[in-house]
């Protein structure tokens, strides 16, 4: 039994779906397959945009929604014969009508909760699974649709719910024991909370769905089929010379995904890592390319680092004051305030003894964080025990990733000297003793230059 | 009116004291002088050692104490005529007898509190002030002894008390208005808490005494007379080419002192900084050398950095766990635990999103910190939500200091590449956006090499 | 200038509104009047019910809404001549249409945020102000409608927003300077956050609107017109012998309102208390009855207590464990968890040394509180350091209120002995040294008996 | 095997010790006995006083110490024949000389740490065990001295150390397996920390020593021999009619001991409670009196309560403020501050919704608590968001204890009405739902009256 996940671009058009079927057909000769599908390429974003338009009271949401509806209906027509169409069409219509109603409601109250948004954006995967399954059937496979709401259970953090691991694992095993079809098609991304509400697993969550199933069933491997031939040494959008990493260990993979590599959703690594199940990143459009194998003991190679990651849209907060030492529990009140405001801290650095502390967060969280900090220390700001909060936006983090960092002298030297020689200003640096990366905060404008510079130094020069 | 502080080596021998008198005699022609004195060179350490021996029940404390007593009695004989001697001798004896009694008590109960230790180690300054003042009188100056216990008031944190700024300032002004002598000799380092107990201001606290007086009296300048000709670009013990920094701003001076420069006690900068009073670091043995001037707007020079500092005896704590994210209030509980255990955090770095955090502390605090962290997260360790605490000792921090850091591209590159080229392994790095330093944690064994390497790159190459 | 607030029952029917006009007409001869109005009697509840029905997807919301619409339209017809009607009708329709649209949206997405609910339930006051003002005009008064959204500014805690006192006071003064009409009609309850969203001030918030205006304008008095002749010695629903309290001080009034007296919304006392402005509680249906005067120094009377208050629908949490002492920061973690869950603590009692703690909260908060406590101490429950959380529901608090409690020996004795003699079981007791009440937690079923028993003992017996 | 503990008064004089031997001789016919002894009556206090005098530099400590020395030497002479004396005398002298040295040390440095105090005050038990054991031997019993420092292991909280339960249990079993003598004499109260320092278990700690041994060895019972014939219904010092309680359950016993009953040290109950081992409280001077049996299911009796306890020397803190609600995390910051200052909270009561909170603590902790609270809320006090801290001293707590409280209607009524009728002013009341007591804070001066009043109502009237 194997678990394969196909991403949005792999399902971007009827043609692409045909490529998927070729891959699946071949593999299903030897194993029962569980096929986890994303929404068609771009659909989740479109659903989100429609929702946002409706929230703003903008009537254009209807036009956008119509476009999206047509796209699915056309896919049905393209892929399926008339007979198969009619049954499917009814099911697809049902889903689409529900979305229409919800969006009308959003439009009327001009408000959009994460709970409602989850209902809307989760439908992309449901639609794609309907269509793909029907297509498999038409092509003669013994395919069956399965419903992840029956086994992926989460808390009620709408927008990005946390999976109840124990319960989910317990539900998956008996569920799949009863599934005898050769191919099982499962919508990714969607889940259910303990009160029966729809939730979603975060953007990229289809990977997570696949990983949860693979781990619970002790699958021999997990395949993530996407539109690039593996996890890349750097973002190929910026770095033309970026190439696929043949092998990488789980922790490096987590670092790379955390710091921006989009091919794999970070939480997906954890469940399979625990079971030692290897992950293959494969390219639907070049199925014969080797891709990337993520496993515990990759063979050593000649590269000093595994990859260069990057998070754009970062803000830096700097909190300082000559009498910070005198503020009782300064650090813990700071992190308490941020935790309560649900602001995720990406990087912390404090280099002088409790005179200033520097925290990098996602640009989206700036207002929340500012509000939380100013509230938590309102009296201290008033008494001028703290300097006014200093916030810098339009920044990015670039980071070298390797689990062999500790043993390599000169890595940071090389990193910062090439950045310096290329005129890239470093705003903040963090590297900890057991960490798998060295991170630098730079201007967002210089990201492309920085990534190319680093890639050239750390990869191409090695290759020469 | 001027405030001059003379350090221990300036008072290391009768000869040296004669050099002090020459400086004082010359300056006192124009101004009333307040002369703050440290204990004779090495005396504070000897008092501390005697105390520690007595605490361990080691009878050798007596021999050491006798040596120390003799040294003071000999200084009296060397410096003073027979007539002056007898009166002074009685006073000196009184102080010494009290120390003898206390140490006997410590010997008997084999316990030494910070409170008792403060009583013992503060006597060095009292003795030196007695002797210096008597010598000034014999040399014909109108000198008078003043008592800092009447105006330097602190809390009861024995060992390193915190000055009650408002109260101290309020007491200093009227006290000095009544002092009409040309030269006022004041023991540094010692103070009193609000219950009348002796306290001390921390090692190097004589500087602080002088700074508090200078600030409260709005003195035009503060002179710190020591045995080097200024604040050095690096620790001359390790770096032969280190040279005195002509001018430096307050914040840079604070960074350098915080990170190891011993010529000035860090808290001393703050009170004079607030008043804009310049500090001169001068050399008793080369009174004509220019020394270092610390003030608000130093003239620009050709150097990219001001100095290289270093803290030896550092330990790194690494706390990590794949489910750290799931531990409510992780960061704030960590810093709460450390704050309660009175562990000062020197450097923090966290480079991956809440999977691990790395904290540098003083080696002395390792046990306390370990205990505090293990207690605070005992259940999480038990449930294996956190990996076992990873502690690395025998480390040091080296840091480049400059308040112009932000505008210089390539500084970190140069720093880390020269360190790398010289085989120095970097354990952790921290640099924040508004900080005045870039800090690297390295092996303690490599400190000398690191400092020389950096000094050569950042200073000598500039000079060529 | 005077501020008068008329409650919902005073505006319950066209007839009643005519009574209001008589009162207003008389008073407006001497002063400019600011008339703050609630929604028509029952309207806020109906709006809330409609909203809840729509949220549940229950189509009956429409019928209920129609009823409510008709009621307003009928009031317009009853009160106003044909001419006045048409203009007003258009305005009323506008408001009603907006509610219809919003409720349809709620129905479609089956979700109701506090933000949306605030928009809906605030319209009751807007409608009643429209109608009352128009009626005043028709009756020949120089009346003008004013808009509280221009001066009552709050944070964004929808459902019960917190007023930004400084900003609100600053806005009120110039706003009213420009209002020259004899009578100014202002909808109560509604406000605006700093982003322009509608907020509401909590059930009963019209009192608060009136108090804020009175305080900001330094009005000589604030009159609260309701359907009882003052603040009562006990809830007359339960206690037939309850009578109006002639005079009472601010703190007693706050206690009584906090503990259930519905005639005045608790937060309303604070702003006028600070300014020393007296509050009169008056009865629209017996305008000549004396009512209650709340002011700083009420004349002494023969009663030992001022009133008996009661909060129904209370739950008690009991957290205990023989090793609670061993749980670091037990109490502060408990209250932190409750604070974060936004659970308001009504009563705390801990009588044995840290073996158990007992907390009374509103019945509505039970689930939230339980979840928060179980999460905060999950590991401690798992390790059986704490006993399972013990929750008792269907309870009530009865309390004696007096600011002269301290000087009266035997008050608690009398209270608990009459309760005991009447078979009322006491679950928990709390009385603090500077508190103005003695509180007992009892079974909800015994509330009526308890109140009558206490009232008889403390009031009637005194009167005999 | 049985565990018997004899208290100080049982060992108050040579005559009394002879009574002890009679009891022991009789019981040792059937069982191996473990005899845990306190210091001779008054000795621990005298040792403490000597220490305090020495700390103050008062030479009278010597005279007091001599008296104490003589008392022990005289006991040796009285009890033992010349032959036995000489060997014992040498051992006793050794202990006494060590105390003399330590106190001289304390005198010289005028400082007394809890660590040093523990060394001094623990010697009382060591001396008494030496003498008692020798006397047993002389009387022909097969007696042996055992050393609790080898098995009672604690943390390093000098003055009142916390036992490491797991380690202590693990050490006790093998230690006693090797002890074959008929009677084993063990000094109570003293223990050792993990670094080998002497610690003590808190005043009354000999009970705890006995309980730990009984529990670890699964003894069939634990006998506490003291100078009263059981746990009394109230403190007989105040209440002449107080009588011994025949049977009581563990939880009631804990409540009574917590709230002042001196016959049993509160922590002693816990280890035997867990094992279900009954405790007998017996009177050395009336060995045939029944005493009190503490066990799980006492037979029901006609009394409504079990006893009346009392804690004298209580202080009440009242923290209030009209905007307490506006102070983020008010309650949890309060309890955090108290926990950090190591202030134990005896009673909490909060009766109005977050406007004031009332906390009872030990009078000794007032300064610490005040300092901690004022520091934690310094800015809030400055901004007048909180009223100045209100502290009331010279108070006491009286409490009714019963584990059947829940089922008895009218208990609180009776309690408070008799208090009221007797002119006793109630400052604060606390009773929680699952608590075993109702507590009232009253004036310390009225304690005797209150106790007698309550005792008469709850006990004598029942007896009539």
Overview of the molecule:
4 copies of one chain form a homotetramer. The longest helix of chain A has 28 residues, at 82-109. The first copy, chain A, has 15 helices and 17 strands. The mean pLDDT of chain A is 89. The first copy, chain A, folds into 2 domains: 2-220, Carbamate kinase, CATH 3.40.1160.10; 307-463, VC0802-like, CATH 3.30.2130.10. With 464 residues, chain A is α/β, with parallel strands linked by helices. Helices cover 42% and strands 20% of the residues of chain A. The first copy, chain A, has an 8-stranded mixed sheet with strand order 3-5-2-1-8-10-11-9, sandwiched between helices. The first copy, chain A, has a 6-stranded antiparallel sheet with strand order 13-14-12-15-17-16. In chain A, helix 2 (43-55) runs antiparallel to helix 3 (61-79), helix 3 runs antiparallel to helix 4 (82-109) and helix 3 packs parallel to helix 6 (123-138). At the A-B interface, helix 9, strand 12, helix 11, strand 13 and strand 14 of A face helix 9, strand 12, helix 11, strand 13 and strand 14 of B.
């Amino acid at each position: 039994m194997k678990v394969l996940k196909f991403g949005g671009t792999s399902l971007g058009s009827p043609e692409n779906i045909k490529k998927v079927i070729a891959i699946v057909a071949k593999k299903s000769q030897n194993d029962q397959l569980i096929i986890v599908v994303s929404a068609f390429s771009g659909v989740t974003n479109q659903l989100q945009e429609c929702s946002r338009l409706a929230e703003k009271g903008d009537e254009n949401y209807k036009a956008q929604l119509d476009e999206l509806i047509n796209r699915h209906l056309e896919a049905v027509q393209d892929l399926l014969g008339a007979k198969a169409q009619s049954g499917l069409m009814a099911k697809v219509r049902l889903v689409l009508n529900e979305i229409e109603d919800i969006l009308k409601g959003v439009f009327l109250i001009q408000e959009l909760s994460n709970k409602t948004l989850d209902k809307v954006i989760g439908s992309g995967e449901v639609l794609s699974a309907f269509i793909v399954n029907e297509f498999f059937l038409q092509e003669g496979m013994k395919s069956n649709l399965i419903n992840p709401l029956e086994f992926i259970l989460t808390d009620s953090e709408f927008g990005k719910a946390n999976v109840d691991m124990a319960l989910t694992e317990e539900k998956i095993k008996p569920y799949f024991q009863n599934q005898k079809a050769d191919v099982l098609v499962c919508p990714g991304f969607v889940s259910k909370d303990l009160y029966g509400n729809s939730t979603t697993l975060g953007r990229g969550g289809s990977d997570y769905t696949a990983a949860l199933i693979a781990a619970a069933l002790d699958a021999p491997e997990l395949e993530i089929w996407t539109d690039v031939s593996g996890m890349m040494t750097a973002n190929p959008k910026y770095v033309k010379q970026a190439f696929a990493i043949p092998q990488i260990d789980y922790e490096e993979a987590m670092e790379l995904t955390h710091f921006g590599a989009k091919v794999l959703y970070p939480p997906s690594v954890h469940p399979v890592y625990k079971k030692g199940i290897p992950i293959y990143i494969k390219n639907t459009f070049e199925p014969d390319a080797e891709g990337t194998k993520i496993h515990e003991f990759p063979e050593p190679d000649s590269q000093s680092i595994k990859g260069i990651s990057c998070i754009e849209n970062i803000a830096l907060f700097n909190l300082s004051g000559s009498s910070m030492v005198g503020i009782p529990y300064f650090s813990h009140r700071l992190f308490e305030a941020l935790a309560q405001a649900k602001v995720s801290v990406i990087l912390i650095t404090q280099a002088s003894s409790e005179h200033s502390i520097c925290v990098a967060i996602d640009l989206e969280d700036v207002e929340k964080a500012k509000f939380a900090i100013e509230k938590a220390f309102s009296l201290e700001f008033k008494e001028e025990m703290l300097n006014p909060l200093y916030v810098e936006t339009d920044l990015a983090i670039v980071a070298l990733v390797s689990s062999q960092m500790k043993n390599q002298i000169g890595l940071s030297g090389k990193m910062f000297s090439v950045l310096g020689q290329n005129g890239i200003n470093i705003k903040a640096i963090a590297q900890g003793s057991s960490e798998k990366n060295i991170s630098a905060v730079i201007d967002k404008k210089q990201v492309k230059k920085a990534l190319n510079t680093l890639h050239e130094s750390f990869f191409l020069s090695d290759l020469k």
